[in-house]
Write a structure and sequence with these properties.
Blueprint lengths: L10 E3 L12 H4 L11 E3 L1 H11 L5 H22 L16 E6 L5 E7 L5 H6 L3 H10 L5 H4 L8
Antiparallel strand pairs: 1-2, 3-4
Length: 157
């Protein structure tokens, strides 16, 4: 329901325009350049939005962002449909942090490329020294929030 987003970490962009050909061209099909000799193309969140709005007149970024959030939510809802061991199970004591890679199609619809349970947070920490403070706040602050305490198992202990 809540997330630490790319607003504090930046947007990673493939170095070459994506297309369904030349599958051996790494910079065309991947955005992770941390572990290779390739340069990494990254934009601040605000610069990315500005450039998207310039390239797509009349586009409202908040609508695109909401479609991205909905796609991520649907991915997790689908994982919970199956349950453990193939899917995910509900546990009110469990918390998790995920890194989700998303591509935006030309029609501005999102495509989830991958989901990582243990994402590399080095760049996020370099961009935002409070990154993990924010993560822990989002994961655990609801234990002290009176609005959610009645639904929380910790409140009964």
């Amino acid at each position: 329901k809540r997330q630490v987003s790319t607003q504090s970490t930046g947007i990673r962009i493939a170095n070459q325009l994506f297309s369904l050909d030349n599958f051996d061209v790494y910079e065309k099909h991947f955005t992770v350049m941390n572990y290779t000799g390739h340069r990494m193309t990254q934009l601040l969140y605000t610069d990315f939005i500005r450039q998207m709005e310039e390239q797509h007149p009349g586009m409202v970024w908040e609508q695109v962002q909401n479609r991205i959030y909905m796609a991520i939510r649907q991915m997790f809802e689908a994982a919970f449909l199956i349950g453990p061991k193939q899917g995910m199970g509900h546990d009110s004591f469990s918390r998790g942090m995920y890194g989700v890679d998303v591509m935006i199609r030309e029609d501005l619809s999102p495509v989830i490329l991958e989901n990582n349970f243990s994402p590399d947070c080095t760049r996020a920490c370099n961009y935002d020294p409070h990154f993990f403070d924010n993560v822990f706040h989002l994961l655990f602050d609801n234990f002290n929030n009176p609005l959610t305490a009645s639904r929380n198992a910790w409140a009964r202990i």
